[in-house]
Design brief:
By secondary structure, the chain is α/β, with parallel strands linked by helices. Helix content is 24%, strand content 24%.
Length: 288
């Protein structure tokens, strides 16, 4: 098996990890969950986090072949399109993104043509579909529950789980977004738990509890199965559903949900400018 190299960057304002996966220096790479910085108080975007990603790709002389989104994030804006413009690569997500686009397209009154394949995303993965990153072989796994469209990417011994799993002392994803379902998430995680215990599990986010000072980007499936505070290997479906639903009832709406979703269902494209040349995000009143 070819070695899977992973370089992880943490975006502190949104507690998000971007992972750069590559076969070897001067080889091929994929970037998973790139972040576009967004200042909610001013409505300004900037590319500080993307510049760190691009700097690493260029330092290692890597050809970017894939930009992989694990789902339509509700906590940060995707930097996929700017990254593609600067470094190339295909922007991809799971095929079930159409379900999420259909719902939020109505919420934000987004023209359907803005979200069609080829405009918003370059490739939509089917469940179990194989793909290559140079010498590395990957597989796209549909793991719904957090949202209907969540994907995990298994690349060699490295598993990129999006919001499905967090570090063992943090737990699992919320299931109260449109189309989310705790029972569905339980079965998605069981699918992941069937992989070898030695599989490295790379986080999309980390929110360290008071007992842990440092953020962590990676654990193993063995650690998750033994110690995940919401779902261990011996946790029943009924217990997980009850715990997850009780937890979700206490959670607030993510700070950047409204700006994030309307960009991310477009594959990272910002809304089209109006006649005055300015692009606008929309805030639906009394709806969410």
């Amino acid at each position: 098996m070819n070695q899977v190299h992973v370089h992880s960057l943490f975006h502190e304002p949104t507690s998000t990890f971007t992972h750069i996966v590559y076969d070897h220096p001067q080889g091929k790479a994929a970037v998973i969950d790139p972040v576009l910085d967004y200042e909610a108080n001013s409505g300004r975007t900037h590319t500080q986090q993307l510049e760190q990603t691009i700097a690493f790709l260029r330092e290692q002389q890597l050809e970017l072949v894939w930009i992989l989104e694990t789902h339509a994030h509700a906590d940060h804006l995707s930097g996929a399109q700017i990254l593609k413009q600067k470094q190339g690569g295909k922007v991809a997500i799971g095929a079930h993104i159409s379900t999420v686009q259909s719902y939020f397209g109505k919420v934000f009154d987004i023209p359907a043509e803005e979200m069609e394949k080829g405009i918003s995303f370059d490739h939509l993965f089917a469940d179990g579909e194989a793909f290559d990153i140079g010498l590395l072989q990957g597989q796209a796994l549909h793991v719904p529950g957090h949202t209907p469209a969540d994907m995990a990417y298994l690349i060699g011994d490295a598993l990129f789980v999006g919001d499905t799993l967090f570090m063992p002392d943090v737990g699992t994803a919320r299931c109260d977004f449109p189309g989310g379902d705790a029972a569905t998430l339980y079965h998605s995680i069981q699918r992941l738990y069937s992989l070898p215990d030695s599989t490295r599990v790379f986080m999309c986010h980390d929110y360290p509890p008071a007992s842990r000072e440092q953020v962590q980007a990676v654990t193993t499936l063995g650690e998750e199965k033994q110690h995940n505070i919401h779902l261990r290997a011996d946790t029943s479906e009924a217990d997980f559903i009850a715990r997850r639903q009780a937890r979700d009832a206490q959670l607030a709406v993510p700070n950047l949900l409204l700006p994030s979703i309307q960009v991310n269902v477009r594959g990272g494209h910002l809304p089209q400018p109006k006649a005055n040349g300015t692009a606008y995000l929309q805030i639906p009143l009394n709806l969410i």
